[in-house]
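User: What would this chain look like folded?
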Amino acid sequence: MLSLLLLLSISLTSPSSAADFCVGDPTGPTSPAGSSCRKESTVASSDFVFSGLSVPGNTDNIIKAAVTPAFEPLFPAVNGLGISAARLDLAPGGVIPLHTHPAASEILFVTRGRIRAGFISSANTPYDATLKKGDVMVFPQGLLHYQVNAGGVPAVAIVSFSSPSPGLQITDFVLFANNISTALLQKVSFLDAAQIKKLKGVLGGTG
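Assistant: Here's the prediction, encoded as structure tokens.
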């Protein structure tokens, strides 16, 4: 019994051989696994605090919405931890169009207003709900999803991701904010040329 207690005491007091964290070094090389780690001697308590989500985002734009990220490039402490966060602001009439996060699942927590949100499964089944303050909804990794202001007042949500760099592809911008030719998009999207050119004009695409 004494030997067991001695071994337990040693295991609890000995420093771990594994790193507790890996605060990202923006000056070092990066890889799909994340950024290089800063030397622990250069890390301070302030590195583990991010205050950016307290500030409302600027919703004066075409979608009347703003996303303020606390991802690895801006919050290096989440590097290697498999988590990150963001703030979502939706003005009345605001919308986050259909989009995906290739590298993360997402949880959305409404803190103000009402938000209609949903995702579409790989079987093309839609899952849609109107969320009020205090409600939470989850969006599985890689699936198309959206958020829309469902009330007449600004809506706010805090979003959590299962990756420090979740990635983002907004479907409308992927299709119409680039230089893919209108003729090709017409073939692959089944939209008429006039509609494609209109959307390219709105979103800055060419071709």
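The first strand starts at residue 30 and ends at 31. If you want, I can go into more detail on any region.
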